[in-house]
Design a protein that fits this description.
Blueprint lengths: L1 H19 L3 E9 L6 E8 L6 E7 L9 H10 L3 E6 L17 H14 L3 E11 L1 H10 L16 E5 L15 E6 L7 H9 L6 E6 L15 E3 L2 E3 L3 H18 L3
Parallel strand pairs: 3-4, 3-5, 5-6, 6-7, 7-8
Antiparallel strand pairs: 1-2, 2-4, 9-10
Length: 260
């Protein structure tokens, strides 16, 4: 009977949504940096189920954690990944590191790798690094084999890396050793797309996927910057189309390289 079918359909749809929802969203966790075991923290989101799941270490910009931190974690959990957004600043009392070299970022990333590799519901052989701007710089350093190279005592290594609008000039002479995705705007005046194109051309065939979004500026994926804001001399601007395309590119990339 049509009148009775609708409640059952609604209930089925609700059960489907619940099955896909994260089991625990944005949980604050304590971990140790690979640099002398310094105490840091992060925000963990995991899919529903027992796993083992692939995982992603998320690395923020020089301005710190984005306003969309929780929704980014939820998005990745919805794709089936455990997501750990590293907070480099919280335990150090920092607000930003845009005008200085922040050397702690790389050991923090490896500390997060070690933390994830020890979780019983994470597959330690399927962990990627995804960084944004300064975090993208760290992701490229990871891809080139910089830093610890593997998580101390955890027997894990990053399998792939993705960098949103990274300063590719910092790694101009690097040879990337793991599959790497680079996403940058054509009108990025902070981390120019041309530098990333030069870096990509120097790599072994198939090692780098470079996507350049026409008209997009720095921080194109972060709605908090609206149609454009000048911060510390940097133009940061959200671009809905580039953001949507970048998440689709990231999902495809992670699926390809973190599959069983």
């Amino acid at each position: 009977m049509p009148g009775l079918a609708r409640p059952w359909l609604a209930a089925a749809a609700l059960l489907t949504l619940l099955a896909c929802a994260p089991a625990a969203a944005d949980q604050l966790v304590k971990l140790a940096s690979a640099h002398q075991g310094e105490a840091i923290q992060g925000y963990l989101t995991r899919p529903r189920g027992s796993g083992p799941f692939p995982a992603v270490v998320l690395l923020h910009t020089c301005l710190g954690l984005p306003q969309a931190r929780a929704s980014i974690g939820d998005r990745l959990a919805g794709w089936g990944y455990v997501a750990l957004f590293v907070d480099d600043f919280g335990t150090r009392g920092l607000k930003e590191t845009c005008a200085v070299d922040f050397n702690e970022a790389l050991p923090d990333a490896y500390g997060a790798l070690a933390y994830l590799a020890r979780l019983p519901y994470v597959d330690p052989g399927r962990i990627a690094a995804v960084g944004f701007s300064q975090g993208g710089d760290t992701a490229l350093k990871i891809a080139s084999g910089g830093g610890a190279g593997s998580a101390r005592g955890a027997g894990a290594a990053f399998k792939a890396a993705a960098a949103f609008y990274p300063p590719c000039a910092n790694e101009a002479d690097a040879a990337l050793k793991i599959p790497t995705l680079i996403l940058v705007g054509a009108k990025d005046g902070v981390t120019p797309a041309g530098d990333c194109a030069t870096l990509a051309r120097q790599q072994a065939p198939g090692m780098v996927t470079l996507v350049i979004y026409p008209g997009a500026a720095h921080a194109f994926d972060l709605p908090e910057f609206g149609s454009g804001r000048q911060i510390m001399g940097m133009l940061l601007a959200y671009d809905r189309n580039a953001a949507s395309r970048s998440w689709a590119e990231l999902r495809s990339f992670l699926s390809a390289w973190l599959a069983r």
